[in-house]
Specification:
This protein is of the alpha/beta class and about 300 residues long. The protein has 13 helices and eleven strands. It has a six-stranded mixed β-sheet with strand order 8-7-6-9-11-10, with helices on both faces. It has a five-stranded mixed β-sheet with strand order 3-2-1-4-5, with helices on both faces. The longest helix is centred in the first third of the chain and has 20 residues. The protein is globular.
Length: about 300
Amino acid sequence: MRIAAIDLGSNTFHLIIAEKKSAHFEVIFKINKPIKLSEDITKNNTIIPAAFYRGINCLKEFKTILEEYNVDIIKAVATSAVRSASNGEEFVNTVRDLTGIEIEIISGEEEATLIYAGIKASGAIRGKSLIIDIGGGSTEFIFCDKNKAYWKKSFDIGAARLMQKFWNSDPLSDLEKKNLKEHLDNTLKELIEFNKNFGAPHLIGSAGAFETFNEMIYPSSQIEHIKSTDININQYRELSNLLVHSTHKERLQMPNLIPLRVDMIVMACVLTDYIINNLNIQEIKLSTYDLKYGILSQL
């Protein structure tokens, strides 16, 4: 049996196809496309026409691939950009009419549940941990161990959303950093409070920006062959400092920093730094398994 998961993220659309073998699955194809569905979404809370049509064209391409691989079961989910946009339902209906792909708009809590399932499948969780999945529109946090998730929540503080609200300078100005910190202080009170008793020393970053951190720190790492791996926290701090204080032009020249993340990586650093400093995180781990692997594991 062939199964497929489609993750319509706020920045990137992912398709992954696997063959089910007894209790396990083997990935036979995967692709991602930088769609930027959340481009300028904070202005009028809508998916702008250019992003709308990029998304439609991408899913037409995905439909062709699904037919080529004779996929039996397809599960497609949409997250923050579609969830929050006033024309999100219109996007879902248009995709269904043009491709036959049925998209489920999932809540932030459902998104966090799938992320936990994917990361658990990677074997990354060891002891008390905080999972963080930094998307374009939202960021999910899950306090967990290998047995279960104890607390999970999605916040509208994705990298693209933070950029659109707080970033106008190059590089980020001190005032913008101050405003960002105040926003995170107000938004993440509940998370900080929960960890006072939970005490998670481990931070597990779900794919995305954390794959970029790993590839910039360890250029010889072959990310396509990694399920999970450690990221040295001191080396991460050095990289974060470099990225936050660099200009757009300087980041364009940095090895292993893909164009989609050239600016959003700065917001990912600000958010990750905030969590490390306020939760007294001791270790960082990358899981390349994320929401789409959570979908596969549930299928």
